[in-house]
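Please review this one:
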Amino acid sequence: MSRPMLEVVDLTKVFPVRNALGRQSGEVRAVDGVSFSIERGQVYGLAGESGSGKSTIARMIMGLASPTSGDILLDGNNIAGANGSRAGKVQMVFQNPGSSLNPRRTAGQSIAVPLTAHGHPRGDRARRSRPPPCSRRHPASCGSPARTPCGSPSGSTKTAASPTCGPTP
């Protein structure tokens, strides 16, 4: 049996609490002993109440925060606290995709940025894409890479911000 694509083992993150003088007066355990694994091709949703540590776990997986203890294994390699080892392998999908898209760019231009940055041959094509015929006749009927996020239905905006969205070959 193959190993999990992503494995989080006993992950903990503790933030210090400081008083008005800047001295540590306590601590907050944002994440305490969390473990899970994700197999290749599996969809995984992390759910919990507000303040339960979901975003902190995501930030640690992305390398934007270092865990206090525990391991984060990506394809069997421990990446906890490491920087730069996730490029092209891990991507966050935000709950409010409208805030992650530039309102002055079309969806195609926004999709082209990471493709071009990673040397993908379709990056330039996504930037220059034209709306499909269905959206020229009935703009609200389908998503278009030539639309700006403000002019797109919320479902189309979420699709444009997702890691699986992109120009078709």
The longest strand covers residues 24-38.
